[in-house]
Amino acid sequence: MAYITALEMKNELDVKAEFRDRLYCRGFLITDKKQECLSDYPFYGNWNETFFMSNEKKYYFYTHKYVELFKYEDNGKLFFLIGHAYNPFTMKHSEYDILEDLAVSYIKSEEDFWKAESELTGVFCLGILFDGKLTVTTDCAGMQLIYHGAIKEHVYFTSHSKLVADFCGLEQTEYIKKLVSNRFWHYWGRWLPGDLSPYAELSRLQPNCKAVYNGKTIEVLRYYPFCKIEETTTEEEYKKTIDELGRIMSNNMELIAKKWPDKKISISVTGGRDSMTTLACTNGNYHKYSYFSYISNDEESVDAYAAKDILNSLGLKHELYKIPNEWDGYKDIDLFKKILECNAGCIGNNNRNDVMKRMYFCANPPCDIEVKSWVNEIGRGRCYDRFNKKFFPQKTHPSYWRALHKVYFHQFGLMKETDKVFKDYFDKYYSHDEFEKLFWVVYYHWEFSWAGGEGVSLTTEHRVSYEITIPFNNRKYLELMLTVPLAKRKVDSIPQDLIFENNHQISDTQIWVKDVSHTNTRAWIERIHLEIFSRLRFVKYK
Q: What is the pTM of this model?
C-alpha cells in the first residue's frame, strides 16, 4: 500500500467535511506542546483543549468530541481518565467517583493504587500528573491503544501514532516499510512486532505497565502481576471461582445499563462461547438491553442465525443487520478506507468488507453503545486450540513469538530483524521473575496479541462507528480465570459452566458455534508453520 501523507489526507478532507470527525475518531493527545490551530487539519474543530499546570509546567490535553476527559484533583495531584470505566467490586460507574477512590488509594501507597486500578472495567487511558511528573497507563488488555514518545524536547501520549507523525513530520522506518509490504503481511491481522509503532520515535504502551515522563525522558515500568498466579487444585475451589466470575460479570452488566440509561445499549451476539457468556450473565437485566448481529459475508450468517435462535428461545428480540454489497453511501468508500488506514498508522490495507461494515454502521448505527465480548479469550487457553497443541515449550525465545505472530517463509533478513525486535521487547518487559509469575503463553496472548492486535482494531476501526464497552476487560476477572487449571481452560470449562450457572436455558438450546474460520486443516497448517519457523533462530537469548 502507498503511504498516505498528511497533505494528501488534508486535501481530501478539506473538500469532504462530512468525514472529518472520523479521522482519529475518539482519539486523544497529551503533550506539553500547544497545538496552535484546532480549526484546521487534523482537528477541524472536532477536538477540545484543556490544560493543567504542574511544577510550572503546562500539559495540554486534546480530546476528540466523541470521547470524554474526567479529572479529580487532590493536594496538587491530578488524576485523569479518558474514555469510560466502571467498578464491579464497589458498584460505582461514575468516573468522578472512581477517580476519587483511586486518589484515596494513592494516599495509602502506590501499590494500593494499582490494586484499586485493577478492579476497573472499561476502555480508557488513566493517568496521574504530580510534581511535574506524568504517569500514564491503559486499561486491562490495552483495548485503548496508547503510544508514547519524547520528540524534540516535547512529550506525546496519544491514541493514534499518525496524529503525532502529522505534527512532527515523522516517517516510517525502513524496517516497518519492508514489514508491511511483505506479501504475507495481511495474514493473522495487522499488528506490529513487540511494542513498535509505525514510527521509531513512538512506542506502544504495554498493558500492565505504566509510562512515566519525568520532564525529559519516558520510563516504562511493570506493575502487574503483583505475585505469582497459582492454579486452584480442588473442585470446591473451582466452583467458588465460577461463582465469583459470574458475580463480577453480572455486576458489570448491571453497571453498563446504569451507566448509560438514556442510550441504546446493544449486545452484539453470536453463537460463540464469549458472546453466550455475556448473554447468560445479563440474566435479570435482559429488558435493559437490545440485541443484534450482522452479516457482511456468508461465513457470518452461521453465527448470526445461531444467535437469533438462542435469543428467540429466551423470548428476546433480535435485530439482524445485513451489510449491503451495493449502497449509495459507498460512493466515498476509497476516502473512508484511507481514513481508517491513517487511523492505524498506515500499516496495511484494510479489508474492503470491513470498510463497508464500518461505513454502513456510521450511517446506520445499530446502537449508541455496543457491548462486545472480547478479551475473555485471554483466560480460555485459546492458543492451544488455535494450533491444536497440547503443550507449549516451558521456555520461550524471540523466534517463537515471531513465528506465532506472522508468516515470512523465505524472507530470512526480515526474520532476523524481527527476532531482534522481539529480543529487545523481552529485555524491556520480561525478566525471569515475570515468566515465573505467569506462563509466557499468557503474556503473549494478553499483552502482545490482544493489546497489539485487537487493541489496534478497536481504537482505529471499530470505535469509528459508535462507542464500545467490554465487560470482560477487567484485570481481577482475568486473574481469576487464570487460577483455573489449564486442563479446564483448554476445553472451555469456564464459559460452559458460567453459562449453565447463570442461565441454563442457553445451554439447553445445544446451540454452540465454533469459530467458522478456524478449521482442523487451518490449525494443522499453522502448527506446521510454527514448528518449522520457530526453530530458525537469529539472535541469542537465555
A: 0.97
Give the span between the Cα atoms of 283 and 124, in whole angstroms. 26
Count how many Cα atoms sit within 13 Å of the Cα of residue 151 in the half-sphere of its side chain.
Answer: 23
Q: In what order do the strands lie in the sheet with 203-204?
A: 47-54, 57-64, 28-31, 154-158, 147-151, 203-204
Taking 60 as the threshold, does the pLDDT of residue 59 lie above it? yes
Pairing of strands 467-469, 369-371: parallel
Distance CA 303, CA 286 (A): 20
Confidence of residue 513 (pLDDT cuts 50, 70, 90): confident
- Cβ contact 498:246 at 8 Å: yes
Instruction: Report d(CA 157, CA 148) in Å as an integer.
Output: 4
Interatomic CA distance for residues 5 and 409, integer angstroms: 31
DSSP 389: -
25's grid cell = 475518531
- 3-state SS, 495-531, equals HHHHHHHHCHHHHHCCCCCCCCCCCHHHHHHHHHHHH
Render 396-433 in DSSP notation, one character per residue. Answer: --HHHHHHHH---TT-HHHHHHHHHHHHHHHHHH--HH
Cis peptide before 471 (omega within 30 of 0): no
Determine the 3-state secondary structure of 443 from DSSP. helix
How many other C-beta atoms lie within 10 A of the C-beta of residue 236? 9
Shortest CA distance to 502 belongs to which of 269, 303, 278, 235?
A: 278
Partnered with residue 72 across adjacent β-strands are 79
User: How does residue 2 score in pLDDT terms, banded at 50, 70 and 90?
Assistant: confident
In total, the chain counts a number of residues equal to: 542
Closest by CA to 82, choosing from 54, 62, 102, 106, is 62
Instruction: Report the candidate in 120, 155, 156 with the shortest Cα–Cα distance to residue 140.
Output: 120
Query: What is the DSSP code string of 219-262?
Result: EEEE---SS--PPP-SHHHHHHHHHHHHHHHHHHHHHHHHHSTT
Rg (C-alpha) for the chain, rounded Å, is 22
Under 8 Å between Cβ of 340 and 460: yes
**Would you call 136 helix, strand, or coil by DSSP?**
strand
CB atoms within 10 A of CB 289: 21
Strand, coil or helix: 181: helix
The whole-angstrom separation of Cα 287 and Cα 155 is 46
